[in-house]
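User: Just a sanity check before I run the rest of the batch. Below are the structure tokens for the first item. I only need the designed sequence back.
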């Protein structure tokens, strides 16, 4: 049984597409003539990463890691020492995950570590974190789609929508 229902779509497919193109352009300018390793944070960033990496007009390299509750579940394959690293996240909420990740990667002596997130929830911040590239500022609501999940569902929606608790009166026991 599904205990959640959709609220409104807050970022349409078209809005995401045009914002991702802008971010790609900015990243391409900022890293021109530099070697860039884009690091996708699984699983939530997979859709954003695929689109953003193709909007970057540089010869980049890619790698992925998976984190959960401030622990690396699956680590990078690449050695990042001496390299420019751009972390690509789906959402910065409390800031705990992004802050942990930046610190963890900094200890490996990269040339630089920057952070790009599709969504930022500034009102939910508990741990301060500098974000270099932000797709959209999101309301302090639970959102799904375009990689973002609820119980590993809704990731394949091509847009981003608010997910609400279903009206308990309509719940099926
Ligand atoms: P943090 O609170 O900034 O550490 O975010 C932890 C993780 O919670 C993010 O990487 C997301 O996977 C997840 N998360 C936070 N807010 C949302 C949301 O609105 N929808 C889906 N996942 C979320
Ligand atoms: Mg996640």
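Assistant: Here's the designed sequence for the first item:
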């Amino acid at each position: 049984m599904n205990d959640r229902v959709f609220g409104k779509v807050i970022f349409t497919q078209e809005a995401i597409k045009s914002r991702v193109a802008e971010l790609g352009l900015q990243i391409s300018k900022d890293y021109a003539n530099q070697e860039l390793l884009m690091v996708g944070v699984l699983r939530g960033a997979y859709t954003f990463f695929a689109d953003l990496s193709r909007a970057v007009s540089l010869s980049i390299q890619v790698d992925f890691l998976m984190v959960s509750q401030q622990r690396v579940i699956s680590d990078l394959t690449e050695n990042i020492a001496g390299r420019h690293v751009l972390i690509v996240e789906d959402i910065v909420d409390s800031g705990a995950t992004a802050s942990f990740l930046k610190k963890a990667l900094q200890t490996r002596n990269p040339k630089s570590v920057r952070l790009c997130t599709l969504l930022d929830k500034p009102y939910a911040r508990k741990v301060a974190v500098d974000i270099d590239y932000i797709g959209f500022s999101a309301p302090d609501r639970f959102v799904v789609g375009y990689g973002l999940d609820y119980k590993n569902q809704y990731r394949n929606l091509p847009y981003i929508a608010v997910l609400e608790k279903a009206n308990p009166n309509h719940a099926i026991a």
